[in-house]
From TrEMBL:
Keywords: Signal. This is Peptidase S9 prolyl oligopeptidase catalytic domain-containing protein. The keyword Signal applies. InterPro entries: AB_hydrolase_fold (IPR029058), Plant_Biomass_Hydrol_Est (IPR050955).
Length: 90
């Protein structure tokens, strides 16, 4: 018997990404927040989510810090992040 781990569904993004965006939009309209100083960070799967948020909503964050997370270079428009501060850890 061979040990096998099926990673097919491990790195799929949740529809909750759009819900998180909706919550953030509510906070931005409810409070006086400098929208040029919004930053995103996440650890592990949250690091992947950080990248996905920035690809899905490219003008939302001033910078991002994904920690021990990553993003496939396939299927994303990274040109929007050309002038964004990105610090990768892990």
């Amino acid at each position: 018997m061979q040990n096998e781990i099926d990673l097919t569904n491990v790195f799929q993004f949740s529809p909750d990404l759009h819900k998180a965006y909706g919550v953030l939009q509510h906070v931005l309209t409810s409070y006086q927040i400098d929208q040029k100083r919004i930053y995103a960070t996440g650890l592990s799967q949250g690091g992947f989510g950080t990248y996905q948020l920035n690809i899905t909503y490219p003008r939302l964050f001033a910078a991002m810090i994904p920690i021990a997370g990553g993003r496939s270079t396939q299927g994303g428009n990274f040109s929007e992040q050309a002038n964004m501060g990105i610090s990768c850890r892990g």
